[in-house]
Design brief:
This protein is α/β, with parallel strands linked by helices. Helix content is 31%, strand content 26%.
């Protein structure tokens, strides 16, 4: 398994079967495309690989609103590797790519940079300056530059195609069932536990903190608010119940830094630098700015009580699954 920032040195190039896309969420539509990629790579003796962009193109242009992120970068990489991908190329989206014509992109990146022999994209794939070229244009370039092209059919859930946009809509509405159907698994967010302000400890609700968005990024998560959750990575083989807040903490901070803060019921210990996975069960409420710490503490107490009810816990008890 290899993850590259940008194109590899020519000495590290390998004959490649490639999927191109943002792959936010790695939903079931993505999974079907990647399954076809891995099969084609195996049949042709190629290395199954993914070309994605970091940051997302819409985060690069200051006049555009960033697309809310379903996945943290850690989560996206893990999901891609779980699909059998052996190499991930994260191409920095910049002025050169934004202005580069479709054929120039194909020649420089796919052919010269990645030695692509087989490539797959979705039917709605667009690329090149101004997103002027389509998946069928890529198929045409393949005949010129001697690589095979497979346009993966769209996958439908109900009457609409499965897409990252639909997953974002479901998450923003707190519909975790609908999101899980399209993702193929429960919605989770993983990351390394970092130090915070220790305010939760002062209020009597010590939290495990994850930064879901890189510092300085214009991105934001696809959801915010307070949630009933279960957390893996603390006790081996167990998912501990808790309540989590994902947002900008407007009552106590104006830093505009996104943070996922999780309070585990009846668990106390040091989890700093551990990687944990937070599984979202149900949305309790949206994020609010309170008048002060007393009102905030009362709200957290109510949120914790509601989360216990959702998770089927009696007041003051904890359960391990």
């Amino acid at each position: 398994m290899h993850v590259f920032r940008g194109l590899p040195d020519h000495r590290l190039r390998v004959p490649t079967a490639l999927a191109i896309g943002n792959f936010d969420g790695v939903h079931t539509g993505h999974q079907a495309l990647l399954e076809g990629l891995v099969s084609a790579a195996r049949d042709r003796g190629l290395v199954p690989s993914v070309l994605t962009f970091e940051p997302h193109p819409r985060e690069y242009f200051p006049h555009l609103d960033p697309v809310p992120r379903i996945s943290t970068l850690r989560d996206k990489v893990k999901r891609l590797l779980d699909c059998g991908i052996e190499r991930i190329y994260m191409l920095p989206f910049n002025e050169r790519i934004a202005r580069e014509g479709a054929e120039q992109f194909v020649e420089r990146v796919l052919v010269e940079g990645l030695d692509t022999r087989w490539v797959t994209v979705g039917e709605d794939f667009r690329f090149g300056s101004g997103r002027a070229a389509s998946a069928h244009d890529l198929e045409h370039f393949g005949k010129t530059y001697r690589f095979e092209t497979w346009i993966s059919p769209l996958l439908f859930h109900g009457e609409r195609k499965v897409s990252s946009t639909r997953v974002r809509e479901a998450l923003a509405a707190g519909d975790f069932y609908e999101a899980s159907v399209m993702l193929g698994h429960d919605y989770t967010m993983a990351g390394r536990v970092i130090h915070g302000q220790a305010l939760g400890r002062t209020l009597g609700f010590p939290t495990l903190n994850i930064a879901p968005i890189p510092p300085g990024s214009r991105a934001r998560p696809a959801l915010s608010g307070v949630f009933a959750v279960r957390v893996e990575g603390i006790v081996p083989g167990a998912a501990l119940p808790g309540v989590a807040s994902l947002g900008l903490r407007p009552t106590v901070s104006d830093s505009r830094r996104w943070l996922l803060e999780t309070y585990l019921f009846d668990w106390h210990g040091d989890a700093y630098n551990r990687t944990i996975c937070v599984r979202f069960v149900e949305r309790i409420r949206g994020e609010r700015k309170f008048s002060g710490l007393d009102e905030l503490k009362a709200a957290i107490r109510n949120d914790a009580a509601r989360a216990r009810q959702i998770l089927g816990l009696a007041p003051g008890t904890a359960e391990v699954l």
